[in-house]
Amino acid sequence: APLRVPPGWKASETQHYRLRYQGDDDFAREVGRHLEAISAELRRILPLEVPGGDRRSLDVRLFANAREFAAYASANGVEGAEAYFSPAQNELVAYMDERSPGRTFHVLYHEATHQYLRDVLGKKPRIPIWLDEGLGEVFYGGAFGAGGAFTVGANDGRLDEARTAAKSGRALRL
Questions:
Q1: pTM of the model
Q2: What contacts 37, CB < 8 A, 6 or more positions away?
């Protein structure tokens, strides 16, 4: 379907993504580069076939600020998220966090993982939450390299949480 762009919004496309965005063109281009890089790594690590053949373009909506993002998210039943993937709307929704641009990209990596899984597995299978969120957390720690490639890296925040839980005795026994 053609990409509908609301008044005051812009659109751009990459090989696998269709971006609708407000504001900064450079940020939108950078998001497109990061998403293509993580897409290549996801396809390399999890080489799953798309139901029905070819992969379609994946939709991304980028807000210029947290306030407008939060209003849109709330209208769609999402509260308190920094970004999210909506299977119902089949779109990844985010905004540029001016206070922490690097974190913005890590959150995008997490959400792009959900979007990839839904794209390649289709709507029918239920993905267990531990697998869906676990893979999102694995890719969250990744990095976009100087050569344009995405590499999986440690999720330092989650490692610190696990270490703290283990030291304090709060870690769940396996």
A1: 0.88
A2: 144, 148, 149, 150
What does the pLDDT average to over 6-10? Answer: 92
Q: Give the model's pLDDT for residue 1.
A: 65
What is the distance between the terminal CA atoms of the chain, rounded to a whole angstrom?
A: 47
Instruction: Choose among 46, 33, 63: nearest CA to 116.
Output: 46
Report yes or no: 132 and 116 within 8 Å, Cβ to Cβ.
no
pLDDT recorded at residue 138: 92
> Are 10 and 28 contacting, i.e. CB atoms less than 8 angstroms apart?
yes
Give Cα separations from 57 to 39, 113, 142, 164 (angstroms). 11, 15, 22, 41
pLDDT higher than 80, residue 10: yes
Contact 102, 116 (CB under 8 A): no
